Amino acid sequence: MYILIINAGSSSLKYQLFDMPAIEPLCTGLIERIGTDQSFIRHTVLNRPDNPVIERHEPIATHAQGFAQLVALLSDAEVGVIKHPDEIRAIGHRVVHGGENFTRATQITPAVKEKIRSYFPLAPLHTINYVCIEIAEQTFPKAKQIAVFDTAFHQSLPEYAFRYAIPEALYRQEGIRVYGFHGTSHKYVSEKAASWLGNPNAKLISIHLGNGCSITAVQNGKSLDTSMGFSPLAGLVMGTRSGDIDPAVIFYLIEHGYTPEQVNTLLNKQSGMAGFTGFSDMRDVRKLREEGDPTAELATELYAYRVKKYIGSYTAVLNGLDALIFTAGVGENDSDVRARICQHLDYLGIHLDFDKNAAFLPGIREINSTESPVKILVIPTNEELEIAQQSYTLLQAE
């Protein structure tokens, strides 16, 4: 059963094609820095002995253009893995916001699309998920479209963790509460960590560091607390988002001439690492640091400090800690950021091995010292495989 997975981020488009129930993809692809002059596409075929790779650096202005590229590559005469779009049985989509309505993989219908649209104001950087659904419906008219929601994993939060201290009516009537995001990634890596540790009841802190960043406390395979809240704006410092900020700052800005729309744009698209350094990508920020830029150094320290505070907080929530998990683009690849975060956490039993941390090895790896009571794990996330497995389970239940 061919299932194509689409994982659209604010400036990226990742895809994998699976022949389920096999967990190894037939091909994978990544389109990054969409909307910039540095955009590129990498397509890798995995079901052939030579594993051909196509990499092109060319302007890709929109996700729609990126989607057209991936469709062409899937059926390309030389590196394609399908002959016709109708061979694909289902398209699994990562959808950021499912509110309290969606707690599991769901087949997309007009009613489901309408509900997804209603959550646009809560995740303004991720309306692109919906755009990709509509493109997929037109491109693969015979395939079933399935949504897997980032918020679903966090529906296990206890009420005292997901409620805000505001009037009851705002939750009951307006749905204002903590929803949490990156749930597909946190679910995948926490399950991998529990298996690695041989402990399904493990106390885990999962740290997803990419352009968007979040941290989640997990025990017994369930999310107990998470840093993103009503929207993906809260919590850690991110590529373009401010993370936690005193709400009074918003009132102050509006009183001094900013419109609500301008404040929204400021905090979601012009803050975070971009607000400090002009660059949202930590690879660019790291280059600035290595060149001695003091602002980039300060921005990175602030970035790591915010993560460190949450680690302390969530260790208290869990009443102990078995393992710390680093995942996603920055978490998996930036050894300097990991080192900054783990520094001075020995009181929690977190001891980093700097040589292990600096060595890049594929797959799951431990980077803690041998005497560290807490494991420090780098686990490559695979949201696409998680989405594929949930989509396949849904189709099998029909």
Automatic annotation (TrEMBL):
Positions contributing to substrate binding: 94
PROSITE patterns registered for this protein in UniProt: ACETATE_KINASE_1, ACETATE_KINASE_2
Residues engaged in binding Mg(2+): 7, 383
Pathway annotation from the record: Metabolic intermediate biosynthesis; acetyl-CoA biosynthesis; acetyl-CoA from acetate: step 1/2
Catalyzed reactions: acetate + ATP = acetyl phosphate + ADP
Record-listed ATP binding positions: 14, 208-212, 281-283, 329-333
Gene Ontology MF terms in the entry: acetate kinase activity; ATP binding; magnesium ion binding
Entry EC number(s): 2.7.2.1
Known cofactor(s): Mg(2+); Mn(2+)
Entry's Gene Ontology cellular component terms: cytoplasm
Class of enzymatic activity (EC top level): transferase
Site features described as Transition state stabilizer, chain residue numbers: 182, 241
Sections of the chain in a coiled coil: none
Compartments it resides in: Cytoplasm
Cofactor note: Mg(2+). Can also accept Mn(2+).
Oligomer status and interactors: Homodimer.
Functional summary from the UniProt entry: Catalyzes the formation of acetyl phosphate from acetate and ATP. Can also catalyze the reverse reaction.
The protein, known as: Acetate kinase
Naturally occurring in which organism (per UniProt): Spirosoma endophyticum
Lineage: Bacteria, Pseudomonadati, Bacteroidota, Cytophagia, Cytophagales
Gene: ackA
